[in-house]
Amino acid sequence: MILIMMMINTIMMLILKHPLSCGLILLAQTILTAIGTGMMQLNFWYSYILFLIMIGGMLVLFIYMTSIASNEKFKFNKNLIYIFMFFLIMLLLLLLIDYYYNNLMTNIDMSNYKMKLKNQFSMMKYFNYPNYFIMIMMIIYLFISLIAIVKITKFNYGALRQKF
Question: What topology does it adopt in the membrane (predicted)?
Fold first, then answer.
């Protein structure tokens, strides 16, 4: 079901032309991707980090787009609304079909979940011998990046966009 919604978002992205509407579709796609990856794993840490990285990138894109095209008006296209309504009706029909299919798959999912609980995953494997060097290097890299970004923004003593 999540894959179908992601495909609908991808099709909608091809139709849209305004940066704000494309950003909203990208946000919906990011949320669906985070939910999909979280459901495939026992914990949601990977999907949470993926979501935060994508939102950070989208914030940078939003700042860039507002500095370039700050006065552009956002108007809804009537044909786009009709296409969106068509996709919404198709999604509701797929939800009804998926409801009946989901009842059949519940037993399979519960047995898979019980098998995952037997193999309890721990975060300690990232801090043990073979992997601790990678973790320390990643922490140092993020710290140096933080210092560099603070120095770059402090150089201007204010916002990145200059007013003329």
Answer: Multi-pass membrane protein
pLDDT in tens, 52-67: 998 988 888 888 777 7
Write out the two tokens for 18. 């305004």
* 104 shares a domain with 23: yes
Q: Let me know whether 43 and 63 are in one domain.
A: yes
Nearest to 49 by CA among 158, 78, 41: 41
Q: What is the rounded distance in angstroms from the CA atom of residue 81 to the CA atom of residue 101?
A: 30
Residues 101 and 131 in one domain: no
114 and 136 in a common domain: no
Q: How many domains does the chain have?
A: 2
Distance CA 108, CA 136 (A): 40
Q: Are residues 106 and 130 in the same domain?
A: no
Q: Which two tokens stand for residue 65?
A: 């787009």
Give the orientation angle of helix 2-15 with respect to helix 78-118, to 10 degrees: 150
Q: Are residues 113 and 159 in the same domain?
A: no
Domain of 131, in residue numbers: 126-164
C-alpha 51/C-alpha 68 separation (Å) is 26
Give the contacts of 38 (CB within 8 A, at least 6 positions apart): 44, 46, 47, 48
